Amino acid sequence: LKEENATLRSKINKLQIFSETQADKMRKLERKLEENKIKEEKEAQDLEAMVQHVEQNLQLMTKRAVKAENNATKLKQENALLQIQLKNYKTENEALRSGQAASLAVVKQNAEVALQNLLTVITNSRSSIKQLVSGAESLQLVADLLKSIDRISEMSEDGQ
User: Fold this and answer.
1) pTM of the complete model beyond 0.70
2) Cβ(75)–Cβ(130) below 8 Å
3) Please, what's the b/e burial string for 59-79 (b: 16 or more CB within 10 A of its CB; e: otherwise)?
4) What is the pLDDT, as a whole number, of residue 101?
């Protein structure tokens, strides 16, 4: 009976040691689980903050795009107006060449006004959207043409 008691006590001790070991493992796993929960919560908060940041950036980019589109529309309208004005000046120049309109001084004055208007538009266009750069270059060519017309007019005036 004593021997059996000793065996049972030995088994009880082993079971208690095993139970303590299992309890330690369980506490470690519970701590690890809690750490993982905290880590996941932080990651979720970080992701939420990132999503909010991206949404803010998208809103800002949308506002910029709308502003750029409005500016582009305004510059296109201004460009169309100047094209009409240029066409009128060309018509007037043709009329002057054929002797049907006013004097050469009026042509020079109109050419100078057109040149000033075109140079102003070119300056504004260059500070605007990249899409309108090609339009600004075209306006520069027109301005150069008007300068050439002015020089031709001066040469014609000198020759008369």
Assistant:
1) no
2) no
3) eeeeeeeeeeeebbeebeebb
4) 47
